[in-house]
Design brief:
Chain lengths: 293, 355
């Protein structure tokens, strides 16, 4: 039974990684850049909810909506100010700028909220479940996280396949130049991608802080890196890949924490990434890119 | 060809002269008592980061592969070095000799790790390589955090659990204490040693770049397929550049270990943020520009410390400066604008000459 409960909480953690990884994967697929600041947007979302709910005493739902709004706005602003001018620059220049943005967000949060960990009140009001005569208990956070993840995946897949904007995103990720020639506004499409990715980061922030209720300016960075690993793991640029990568990562991390060593769990997760990439250099569901001479 | 060679010689000479001049200025200032204790504490780190930046530039700028695991190699070097120094306490009483052996051992260990990690990793490209090197850096840090090594009359004992499970005899001592790391390393690193090691690094890297090997490495960077088709052994040269870069990072690590009383593999010391910080030095100094790496490392290490008076705002300013510099340096529009301004300037100059 304990195995089952570790497995379920692993899937829940994996769902959070998957939601964050979606943001990474979409931005990478469309703008061809590693948005290192993505993890810090999670943290901003967390603080937005904390301010609304714990400081101002609003309802949790108001907090989540505010966080989504704040993060969406933030994502679009960052894209406009820092990344758009570098659209045709080298990918390394964009990476360093993203790192700069990450430092900026962390230090702004440090200035406003201080470095002490804040106790985050869970925004989940769903009661937990007790199964198998009380031997297996599943918390409300776990249930909500898994459901939210499934809903987001389904909604996003429909959005990309059925709407014009979604099709535009696919076109831009396939070939930016050709998409522009077809009359697609590339800049607007990339901005929308950032908006969606950041909104998802806010949701992930709410879920992450509800499950692990401690909030510091650095809360987002490690989950951000892990989600990035998950995105690479599943094949960066692929939406089902992000889900698969996130879930595998969460389960492996939780099980190795429970059965091997809590200190070594990160090392195990990263080793798994290396093994996968050596066997399949573009991730589990990634497309193989043929090099032309 | 000869003119080009001379130009390279002069360029390299300037780099060496710059470092020696920096050393001389600091020596003169400190003899006159003009160096504050804050500055004095910064001198060894300046050398360490300059070495790290130069060595990472070999991987990122010359070989053209993005590595985010440089701190991992530094970590290997630091722990090997500190371990050797502590182990030989009774055998070799002289701190200087021990430090020297530690430097050799630390660089060698990091170099070997570079080869071991390089063989699988260098098959990957671009962002994938970046994330895997980051992963390796984190794995090394995590493993060292759970490592316990003790010694008694029977020899070395090893464990990944805790001090007790080492099963040491009475009188045995624990050298590596997991997350607490290694304590009691002599603080033998001085500014002069740091500068000597920096010069050594520069000699190795600059000579490598201007050799047949270096040209082969740069050919791989510019066009891997073309390089392969003219018979350059891609794996060999990639591995060579990667492991030399790792070995030099290991050397910087040994220097780092000997500038601290306690060496622990924390995220602040050897986490991916450290690797990223070094990458920032390399990119701002200019990819492939060794002199630039030294200057950027020195300025950017000193800057946040010198801004200490601004307290909480200093890292914020650092972040803003970083973004602004990247936008100014790399954005196509900013480059265009700079060209226009430069053109006008030149125009004025030539007009003034004619008049």
């Amino acid at each position: 039974m304990s195995f089952l409960s570790y497995l379920i909480s692993g899937i829940s953690l994996g769902s959070i990684y998957a939601i964050i990884a979606l943001g990474y994967t979409m931005v990478y697929g469309i703008a061809r850049m590693l948005n290192f600041a993505h993890g810090d947007i999670i943290m901003v979302g967390g603080f937005a909810i904390f301010t609304m709910v714990s400081t101002l005493g609003m309802a949790p739902m108001v907090g989540i909506v505010t966080a989504v709004a704040v993060c969406t706005l933030l994502g679009v602003t960052i894209e406009f100010v820092a990344y758009r001018p570098l659209r045709d620059a080298s990918s390394l220049a964009v990476l360093i700028t993203a790192i700069g943005v990450s430092y900026l967000l962390q230090n702004l949060a440090l200035l406003i909220f201080g470095s002490n960990a804040r106790q985050f009140t869970s925004v989940v009001t769903v009661p937990g479940l007790k199964l198998a005569g009380g031997r297996l208990s599943i918390s409300g956070e776990t249930i909500v996280t898994i459901i939210v993840c499934i809903v987001i995946m389904a909604a996003l897949t429909t959005f990309i396949n059925k709407t014009r904007i979604g099709q535009a995103m696919l076109a831009v990720s396939e070939d930016r130049g050709a998409a522009a020639l077809m009359g697609i506004n590339v800049n607007r499409t990339i901005a929308i991608t950032f908006a969606i990715g950041s909104a998802l980061a806010a949701v992930a922030g709410a879920l992450l802080c509800s499950t692990y209720p401690s909030l510091t300016p650095y809360t987002g960075s490690m989950p951000g890196i892990k989600a990035f690993v998950a995105a690479v793991f599943g094949g960066i640029g692929s939406i089902p890949g992000a889900l698969l990568g996130g879930i595998i990562l969460g389960v492996v991390e939780n099980l190795s924490k429970a059965y091997i060593s809590s200190q070594l769990s990160d090392a195990i997760v990263f080793s798994l990434l290396i093994v996968i990439l050596l066997v399949r250099p573009t991730g589990i569901l990634g497309k193989k890119i043929n090099e032309k001479v | 060809m000869k003119a080009k060679k001379n130009k390279i010689l002069i360029q390299n000479g300037i780099t060496y002269a710059m470092v020696i001049a920096f050393w001389a200025v600091v020596q003169i200032l400190s003899a006159g008592g003009h160096v504050s204790s804050l500055m004095r504490g910064l001198l060894v780190p300046l050398c360490i980061y300059a070495i790290l930046a130069v060595s990472l530039n070999l991987t990122v700028g010359i070989l053209g592969e993005l590595s985010l695991g440089h701190a991992g190699f530094m970590c290997v070097g630091a722990f090997t070095g500190a371990f050797i120094t502590r182990c030989m306490e009774s055998a070799v009483p002289s701190v200087g000799v021990r430090f020297f052996i530690a430097l050799l051992a630390g660089s060698a260990a990091a170099g070997v790790f570079g080869i071991l990690i390089g063989i699988p990793v260098l098959r990957l490209k671009g962002d994938y390589l970046a994330i895997v090197t980051l992963a390796f850096g984190e794995i090394i840090k995590n493993l060292i955090n759970v490592m316990f090594i003790g010694r008694d009359s029977k020899g070395f004992h090893f464990s990944i659990k805790d001090t007790l499970s080492l099963g040491l005899e009475e009188g045995g001592e624990v050298i590596v204490k997991g997350a607490q790391g290694i304590t009691g390393t002599p603080r033998a690193a001085t500014f002069t040693i740091g500068i000597i090691l920096l010069l050594l690094t520069l000699v190795i890297v600059l000579n490598l770049i201007n050799s047949r090997t270096g040209r082969a490495i740069m050919a791989i960077r510019d066009n891997r397929i073309a390089a392969e088709s003219i018979g350059i052994n891609i794996t060999k040269y990639k591995l060579m550049a990667f492991s030399i870069s790792a070995a030099l990072a290991g050397m910087a690590g040994v220097l780092y270990a000997h500038s601290l009383a306690t060496l622990a593999a924390t995220s602040a010391n050897f986490g991916y943020n450290k690797s990223i910080m070094i990458l920032v030095f390399v990119v701002l100094g200019g990819l492939g520009n060794i002199q630039g790496s030294v200057i950027a490392a020195i300025i950017l290490t000193a800057l946040p410390e010198l801004l200490r008076g601004l307290n909480d705002y200093r890292m914020l300013i650092y972040a803003i400066v970083l973004i602004a510099m990247m936008l100014f340096n790399s954005s196509p529009k900013a480059i265009e604008l700079r060209e226009v301004v430069m053109d006008k300037f030149r125009h004025k100059k030539s007009a003034a000459k004619e008049a």
